Amino acid sequence: MTRSIAGAALLLLLALPMDASSQTPARRPRAREAGVVVGVLPTGSLNAITDVAGVRVGQVTRAEGDSIHTGVTAILPHPGNLFRERVPAAIHVGNGFGKLLGFTQVRELGELETPILLTCTLCVWRAADAMVEWLLARPGMEDVRSINPVVGETNDGGLNDIRSRPIRPEDVVRALESATDGPVEEGAVGAGAGTIAFGFKGGIGTSSRRLPASLGGYTVGVLVQSNFGGVLTINGAPVGRELGKYALKEQLERRGGEGGSGGAADAAAPADRADGSIMIVVATDAPLDARNLDRLAVRALAGLARTGSTMSNGSGDYVIAFSTAAAVRRGPDQAPRTVADLPNDAMSPLFQAVAEATEEAVYNSLFRATTTRGVRGNVVEALPIDRTLEILRRYGALHWDRTLPPGKPRP
Question: Which CATH architecture has domain 36-332+342-396?
């Protein structure tokens, strides 16, 4: 789709009738469709984590009345038997207020032997048990006596009856078995069905970057489960501040910006706190070992910071990074072998790619999410697209690529 057509489509989109249940358009644009061009590198064809060859994503959404808004998102690094053909991996902790299952073995061995599941906080163990049952029943797994399921979470208890722990084994199996390498659904779906980001409806978002051939031609893809706070910033524009919704707003307005005693009575209202969490999954086809995957994971947090997050005390901020390159895969019982991986000096373009893709994935999680009415009558509004675009226009944060000199390639 050309940019002129995309712009016309956006105008048409904003004129669409509203969905009666959510009071939002039936189809909201991705950030780039609305003119939010992040960074300088080109995206992959899908602008999704599935642009990394072999990576598949499956999602199951549980939405029942106002009480259940949660789900499962499954990320599979390749279509084979992951236990027998493991991928190098690393996990970086930005802030450790979370329940990431499987972390210690990945850190110790530097490899993934299961798919990655994302779900709600109190559903982690149910999801892990269901995935282990599914894996043990797969062909070639008859003699397996130990397995390390990797399951991440964010707390969707503001919109979801999280204490009911509604994820069922069949939800996990369906997410795993329905995973595809095509477009990834975003917004209030899968593990993002009940999440909140920057006080607006958050959810699942994804993006990718492809390096030019001169820099290796590698692809980096990112998927996020956004459920955190701060002061929303989009392409440098202070959107959260302009919309009047940001962390500590109530305290600052009540105290005139002069602060207080810091006691329990001064605690910000839940809507004003930056607490929450984000899970960031990074995939690349660049041949990287666990050490350089950890370095790549760290740079994903640079992209997160650009969105306005400060990784508050109550936020669980994790990055799981893996390489799909066949040259660096390993089996559980392999003899010593020669592995060809990238040198340190080749990492900087990948660092740029992961920062850009993470930033845009967060924006996509917000742009695509829809207003949701949840448990206890809580309603979380979607990011207002029209007002957000007006702010971005005023700050010159839309379509920077249209100002390039003639003949200059555009992302």
Answer: 4-Layer Sandwich (3.60)
